[in-house]
């Protein structure tokens, strides 16, 4: 699974010539010096075991977030369709989807700040925001 112009595509069914001039993002390109938020949440919630399916899940979820900044758990589940996991029994994956959805509800308040903050600083702010409530969060940035 890769993102072609920010939309998920099966890499095994996409010919190189179809991508000429288009932006390609792989699992390796979405995180440089720290994990992407989706990867971090999968790690914390036990969303994988062997990790074979995880790159496809993460890229698919990135595609959902590129289309919708505040997805519901159902939106995220639909975005994962076609990705199969043979290990986890989906409990950890579903917990991850709930956290991603919750995280992105708060994320919409911080879209202007997120690119400038390290993950741990961002997480601390989000934690403070949870204590303040969403109305107060709107006024922070
Ligand atoms: S973690 Fe092994 S296939 Fe999903």
Automatic annotation (TrEMBL):
Molecular-function GO term, any one: 2 iron, 2 sulfur cluster binding
[2Fe-2S]-binding domain segment(s): 26-96
Keyword set, alphabetical order: 2Fe-2S, Iron, Iron-sulfur, Metal-binding
Keyword S-adenosyl-L-methionine on entry: no
Organism (species): Anaerobacillus alkalilacustris
Protein name as it appears in the record: [2Fe-2S]-binding domain-containing protein
Pfam family, one: Fer2_2
Highest taxon of the lineage: Bacteria
SUPFAM superfamilies listed in its UniProt record: CO dehydrogenase ISP C-domain like
């Amino acid at each position: 699974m890769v993102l072609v112009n920010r939309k998920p595509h099966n890499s095994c069914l996409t010919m190189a010539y179809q991508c000429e001039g288009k932006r390609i993002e792989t699992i390796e390109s979405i995180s440089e010096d720290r994990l992407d938020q989706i990867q971090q949440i999968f790690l914390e919630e036990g969303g994988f075991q062997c990790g074979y399916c995880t790159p496809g899940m993460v890229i698919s979820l990135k595609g959902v977030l590129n289309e919708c900044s505040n997805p519901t758990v159902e939106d995220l589940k639909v975005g994962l369709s076609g990705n199969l996991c043979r290990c986890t029994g989906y409990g950890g994956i579903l917990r991850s989807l709930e956290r991603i959805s919750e995280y992105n509800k708060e994320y919409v308040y911080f879209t202007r700040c997120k690119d400038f903050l390290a993950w741990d600083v961002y997480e601390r702010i989000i934690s403070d925001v949870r204590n303040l409530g969403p109305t107060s969060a709107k006024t922070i940035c």
